[in-house]
Design a protein that fits this description.
Helix content is 36%, strand content 30%. It is built from three helices and four strands, in the order βαββααβ. The protein has helices spanning 15-31, 59-66, 69-78; strands at 2-9, 35-42, 49-56, 87-91. Helix 1 runs antiparallel to helix 3 (69-78).
């Protein structure tokens, strides 16, 4: 399993648009083949910072998503709203406690 973490910082005026757009695509992203989990977080210290956190069965599943029309459309709408360049990490989960 691959965990993907993406940090995005938005211009304050764009946040309502981003949240509305995310609401419209979140189920499509989650339903994409290989996606097993999706969450959106917002920074407590800086409300302009958001993180997506997703689980992918394989690295190829994530790559298939990143080359899909769904991702291209989401990214084309989201990227112009950033106030800083997005950062992304692909990590392996080592420990999980419930």
């Amino acid at each position: 399993m691959l965990v993907r973490i993406v940090k995005m910082q938005f211009r304050e005026s764009e946040i309502p648009t981003f949240l509305a757009n995310f609401e419209g695509v979140k189920n499509k992203i989650r339903a994409f083949p290989g996606c097993e989990f999706l969450e959106l977080y917002r920074g407590q210290d800086d409300a302009r910072i958001f993180f997506t956190y997703s689980y992918w069965k394989t690295p190829q599943d994530l790559e298939n998503y990143r080359h899909s029309d769904l991702f291209k459309g989401v990214w084309a709408e989201t990227k112009p709203m950033f106030s800083e360049k997005a950062e992304a990490w692909s990590v392996d989960k080592l420990v999980s406690l419930d």
